[in-house]
Write a structure and sequence with these properties.
This protein is mostly helical. It contains 4 helices and no strands. Helix 2 runs antiparallel to helix 3 (50-76) and helix 3 (50-76) runs antiparallel to helix 4. It is elongated. It starts with a helix and ends with a helix.
Length: 109
Amino acid sequence: MYSKAFESQRKVMTLLNQSNHIPNYIKNQLGRAGLSILLNIAEGSGRSSQKERRNFLVIARGSVFECAAILDLLNAQKEINPETHKDLKEGYEEISRMLYAMINRSEPK
């Protein structure tokens, strides 16, 4: 899952570095939200308690939804091409499913 998040963030950074027409405040938010996914997965994996790990995964999944919403807006405004939107959204959907499964497995019984 970390590698998927890493690859998604790499793609987002490339997009943001190449896009002069996307407003800076949106670039900033998308960059920070994408980085939040990656860093919360990493930090959660280093926690010793299941409860702490789960919390970081929940936060990461929230950031996935944030990124997806920004991508939808950029796509609707024609700030990104449909292929880029589709590629990034599919990656986020996969990460979301993986996080959801891990969160459910870590729920207290």
